[in-house]
Structure formats: structure tokens, C-alpha cells
Amino acid sequence: MRQLFTAIATVALVSVSAHAQQVYRWVDDDGVVHYSDQPPESPRADAESVDLNVPPGIDNPVLSANTPAAPDASTVSEQAALTGLLEQQERADEAEIVPYTGLEITSPEAGEVLWNIATQLQVAAILTPSLQGEHEIQWILDGQAVGNPARSTSQTITPVYRDTNTIAENVLDEQGRTVYRSNALTFYVQQTTRGR
Q: How many structural domains does the chain have?
């Protein structure tokens, strides 16, 4: 980048030298480097005289390849955008999702018979490790998603009627995609009936 700036400045100065004997260099209040055949109008600007007969980088500190150029506005905004992307990537790397290793439904138990639950089923599970990032739990009753995804591994599902049922649980990512799932287990709901 510095070599490119030096080459551009050299070409500009050579074209200016065809029309003028004296070239001035100064840095304004915003840090922008200027070259001109006229000294700056601002009395606060310290202009340096540039010797056009000396190649850049050789005994000419003004045009030395080591002289940093002040970035223009587009370069600053590009650098800010790049910095923002790098910081975002670093945060994403720090918050990297740890793979799940287990999801076990603890309530109801496999083969359990539930009596008189008044259509409300209490479900619970253990997830290892715990929920990552913005992941949520979605319960699956008899092959159908029930209730809303939530950040809890326990929930009340309703209505659940007397029948042979299956229950399973999925872990969903931020886009609603399944990233981990439990095995489905079977349980039974029974209702006490009164004799006549």
C-alpha cells in the first residue's frame, strides 16, 4: 500500500514539476497529506518544500517510502468494516457451540402408565451439555411438534388423551433446524371409569 502511494505521489509530482519549479507538501488538520505548487492557505499548516530531482526513498524524507500516508475516508471505512467482521468472527469463535452428547427424557418414563392426568402431560429431559447459544427445545408428541419451542427442558403439554402415545424431543438452532434429537419413547395414558 505504501509503495502504491509512493508511486502515485511520484507520478503526480513529476506531472506538477513540468509546470512548476516549487512543490509543497503539508498535512491538514484531518491528517490528509497534500501536494501542490502553491503553499497552503492555512497559516497553521506547516508546508515542506519537496525536491523533485531526488528519487523517492533516497535522501528525501518527504517522499520516503517509509513515510506513512494518511488514509482517505473510503480506506478508513473499509478498514472499519473489516475490523468489525474480524471482531464478529472472534466472538463467534469464542461462543462456539459445544456438541451435544445426550438427551434423555426423564418424564414420562418408557412404558409408564399415567392415570387421570386431566389431559395435561408434564414432560422433562436432561440435555448434555446444557442448551448452547440461542438453541431451543421442541417436544414431539405422537410424531407431531406440540407447543412452542422453549429454552427449558421441562414443559406441560396439553391436550393429551387416553391412548398409547410416543414422546420425543428435538434441539433446534436459531433457524429452527434440528441439531440434536432424543429417541422416542412410548407411554400410556389411562382414565379411571366409574361402574354403573
A: 2
